[in-house]
Design goal:
Layout: H1 21-34, E1 39-45, E2 51-58, E3 64-68, H2 77-95, E4 104-108, H3 113-119, H4 127-136, H5 190-200, E5 204-211, E6 216-218, H6 227-240, E7 243-245, H7 254-262, E8 266-270, H8 283-298
Parallel strand pairs: 3-4, 3-5, 5-8, 6-7
Antiparallel strand pairs: 1-2, 2-4, 6-8
Helix pairs in contact: 2-8
The structure holds zinc ion.
C-alpha cells in the first residue's frame, strides 16, 4: 500500500468554493507555477472556446488510468474534489517519487466548463446564446438543474455505445434540453469529441468517470465488461462503502463506450448524496471517499 500523508501540508489554495472555470484555470496556473512534476495538454475546446485540460502525473508508460469529472454542469463539486486531490498527489509525489512508479494518472477535471459556469450564474456574453439558453431552461433563471453543455446536449449521452437506444429510455429528451438530450447524432459536441479522441489516442487500462449523486457506482455494460471489472468493483465497494451496481438502463455513456470498445474496466462513480449541485458542506466527506478511490488507483493491486 502506498502512503499518502498530508501532515504539515499548508493549504495555499481554497477548493471549497464555487468552482467556476475561471477558478479552475487559475488554480491550474498556480499549481504549474509551484510544481512542474506533471504534464498538461489541451485536449479540445468547449463550444464557447474554453480549453479542456488534461493533466498527467506518474512514471508508467503502459499503465495509464484515466479519471474525469465535470461532465454534467451541476456536478461541478467533482471538479473541485478532483483538483484538490491532484494538488495533494503533486505534493506527495514530490516527497516520494516512488508512489507513482507503476501508474500514470490521466486527469481531466472539467469537461463541461461552459455548463458549469452557467450553473454558477455566469451567463455567456452572446445575446443570441443567452436567449436560447433561457428558452431551453423553460424561461427560468434557476440553472441548478442544468446538466447539459451550453447548447443543451448531455455529454454523457454522446458516445457511440447503443446510442440509438437512448430514445427508448422514458425520461430522455428528444430536443435540446437542460438535461438528458443525447444530441442530433453521437459525438456532435466538442466536449464529447475531446474525451473520445483522448481515449482513442491512449491505451488507458481503466477509466473512472466521476458523477453525482447516489453513493453507488456502475461497472458493467451489456455483458461486455472483462472479468476483472467484477474483481475491481468488489474492492472499490469495500474501500469506498459505495454500492457496486453492475448495470442500470443506460446507453451512450463514456464508460459504456469504453467497456464496449476496449473490453477493459470502466466505472461511473456517483459521488455523494443529496440534490445536485451538492452543498459545500459535503466537501470533506466526499473528499475522503474520493481520496480512497484514487489511492486504490495508484496502488499496485498484483
Ligand atoms: Zn452526471
Amino acid at each position: 500500500m502506498v502512503g499518502w500523508n498530508n501532515d504539515g501540508y499548508l493549504e495555499l489554495i481554497n477548493y471549497r468554493t464555487n468552482f467556476t472555470s475561471e477558478r479552475f484555470y487559475s488554480i491550474f496556473n498556480e499549481l504549474w507555477r509551484l510544481n512542474k512534476c506533471f504534464s498538461w495538454s489541451v485536449i479540445g475546446f468547449s463550444l464557447l472556446g474554453k480549453p479542456i485540460l488534461e493533466f498527467r502525473i506518474g512514471n508508467s508508460k503502459d499503465n495509464i488510468i484515466h479519471i474525469n469529472a465535470g461532465m454534467h454542469a451541476n456536478e461541478w463539486n467533482n471538479s473541485a474534489l478532483l483538483m484538490k486531490l491532484f494538488d495533494e498527489l503533486l505534493l506527495n509525489s514530490a516527497n516520494n517519487s516512488k508512489i507513482l512508479d507503476n501508474v500514470t494518472l490521466s486527469i481531466v477535471p472539467m469537461i463541461n466548463p461552459d455548463g458549469i459556469d452557467l450553473v454558477l450564474n455566469n451567463f455567456p456574453n452572446n445575446d443570441f446564446l443567452r436567449e436560447n439558453i433561457i428558452k431551453i431552461n423553460k424561461f427560468s433563471l434557476d440553472f441548478s438543474g442544468w446538466k447539459a453543455n451550453i447548447r443543451g446536449v448531455d455529454i454523457n449521452n454522446q458516445f457511440p455505445a447503443c446510442w440509438e437506444l437512448i430514445k427508448t429510455i422514458d425520461f430522455k429528451k428528444s430536443e435540446y434540453s437542460s438535461r438528458d438530450f443525447p444530441g442530433p447524432y453521437p459525438l456532435s459536441e466538442p466536449e464529447a469529441i475531446a474525451l473520445y479522441n483522448l481515449t482513442l489516442n491512449n491505451n488507458f487500462s481503466e477509466v473512472y468517470a466521476l458523477h453525482s449523486q447516489g453513493e453507488e457506482f456502475y461497472w458493467g455494460f451489456n455483458n461486455q465488461e472483462p472479468p476483472e471489472s467484477e474483481f475491481l468493483a468488489d474492492k472499490i465497494e469495500k474501500i469506498t462503502g459505495y454500492k457496486a451496481v453492475r448495470t442500470i438502463k443506460s446507453y451512450g455513456g463514456y464508460k459504456d463506450w469504453f467497456i464496449q470498445d476496449y473490453k477493459k474496466p470502466g466505472f461511473t462513480i456517483e459521488i455523494g448524496k443529496g440534490i445536485n449541485p451538492l452543498p459545500l458542506s459535503r466537501f470533506e466527506t466526499d473528499l475522503n471517499t474520493l481520496r480512497k478511490l484514487i489511492l486504490f488507483c495508484i496502488t499496485d493491486r498484483k
